[in-house]
Amino acid sequence: MSLGDILQGDFFTEYIKKGDIMMLSEGQTAVSTLFTLREGILAMFVDKETYERAGLVGKPYGAKGGRGSKPRWVVTYNLRDPSMLRGHKGYDRLIYACKSVFTQPMTWLFCNSTTQSKHNQAL
What's a Gene Ontology MF term here (predicted)? Predict the structure, then answer.
């Protein structure tokens, strides 16, 4: 599932806008592209080249580079913000980056914290 698949359609509405989920993509913050989603906040940890190609606003993350390490960037979005809908500039820019840069399908760890078990209902 690519990042763009998560940010559009029923999944986006039901699980991110209304629900309370946590997601973690494959990858490592210091080496490869990594996405985290917690309480509606999407954090994208990317290298400098990917950051520049995506055209999103972010901040430097970790070491500034040097001796074998490359500079990293973190881009965050509050997906529960009312402006995170199609037709709004920030959301459309994020979707464009998903279609042009973040196109690779990834494996995700998914936790739905709104799911209730039978034991919780009995209490």
Answer: ribonuclease MRP activity
- Boundaries of domain holding 23: 3-110
Q: Where in the chain does DSSP place strands (E)?
A: 21-25, 34-38, 41-47, 59-61, 72-78, 108-112
Q: Is the dihedral of CA 34, 35, 38, 43 positive or negative?
A: positive
Query: What's the pTM value of the predicted model, to 2 decimals?
Result: 0.84
Of residues 70 and 102, more confidence is placed in 102
The 3-state DSSP class for residue 73 equals: strand
| Whole-angstrom distance, CA of residue 69 vs CA of residue 63 | 8
Domain count, the chain: 1
103-113 pLDDT, tens per residue?
Answer: 999 999 999 98
The answer as to whether 26 is a domain residue is yes
Q: Is there a contact between 74 and 37 (Cβ–Cβ < 8 Å)?
A: no
Q: Which pLDDT value is given to residue 78?
A: 96
Q: Is residue 122 part of a domain?
A: no
DSSP 17: I
Has residue 119 been placed in a domain?
A: no
Note the pLDDT of residue 123: 46
Note whether residue 71 is domain-resident: yes
